[in-house]
Amino acid sequence: EAKRHGRGRAVRYAPGMIEAVAERHALERDLRLALADHQFHLVFQPIMTLSNDAIVGYEALIRWQHPTRGFVSPVSFIPMAEETGLIMPIGAWVLNEACRRATLWPAQQHVAVNVSAVQLRSPKLLAHITSALADSGLPPHRLEIELTETALVEDGPQVAHTLSALRQLGLKIAMDDFGTGYSSLAHLRDLPLDRIKIDRSFVSAALHDKHSMAVVKAITQMGSDMGIVTIAEGVEDADQLALLRSLGCDAVQGYLIGRPERQMNYCPPAAISTHVN
Ligand code: C2E
Ligand code: MG
Ligand code: MG
Ligand code: MG
């Protein structure tokens, strides 16, 4: 590499680059230890249906509480987990924990779990899902899998096989962050999808940008014509909620409805009633 720059010329690194590489390695090393050291936990964000404003389920979101760095965002460590293969054991833990927690909720509520492209490509994913369901006792119809467009459009034989097996099990499949990836309308037509999640970037811009508004309109219309439930992400204020209602969007999720929470002292209604005696 240095030779290409000619003899006697040192390769220059941009200031901070070596530090950034070292930092990355340190974080990667820590990520390897995090699972065994119980540094992960899940938070749950409510999803509200607009037909009767009921909470129909929660999305599980992973949190990493690093012993010295504090909170590390999944936006930075999930890609790292994907590159190192650590997403497989971490993803299996998420599935187990999410299913276990969902058994504490009312039976009409589901849990939505994010599954990465790397997991979907792996022949192990199905076993991880079936054992999470079996160990927790959660019925398959109460588990939803959120996949990104990028994961879904990869049409390898493994992906197709896993998707149809998941469908057969009775799970629901959602396309996450819709509109931001590389999906085409042919994929929407051909994939066995139950839900489309409209990306927050369109939802938050819709009221002041007519192109974002057009996209939100088109997705909700298409979803309803195709019999696919549409869920708007990142709903933060009442005006956005009113807009989504008027467009016939099926469900909403966002800080206005509820922030992702730990549910540490969550007490299921059933447990309360059986306790009184
Ligand atoms: P996502 O699946 O699209 O999750 C929604 C993200 O939007 C979450 O960020 C959530 O906290 C945030 N959010 C929800 N409502 C609002 C709102 O009203 N305003 C704003 N500004 N943000 C809102 P989070 O938890 O940081 O997760 C980021 C991404 O990391 C997720 O995007 C998902 O792609 C990934 N991720 C999180 N947990 C997991 C996991 O267990 N497994 C995998 N593979 N990926 C995960
Ligand atoms: Mg998601
Ligand atoms: Mg999303
Ligand atoms: Mg998103």
From TrEMBL:
Coiled coil spans: none
Residue ranges occupied by any EAL domain in the UniProt entry: 24-274
Superkingdom, taxonomy of origin: Bacteria
The name this protein goes by in its record: EAL domain-containing protein
Part of the whole protein covered: 511 to 787 of 787
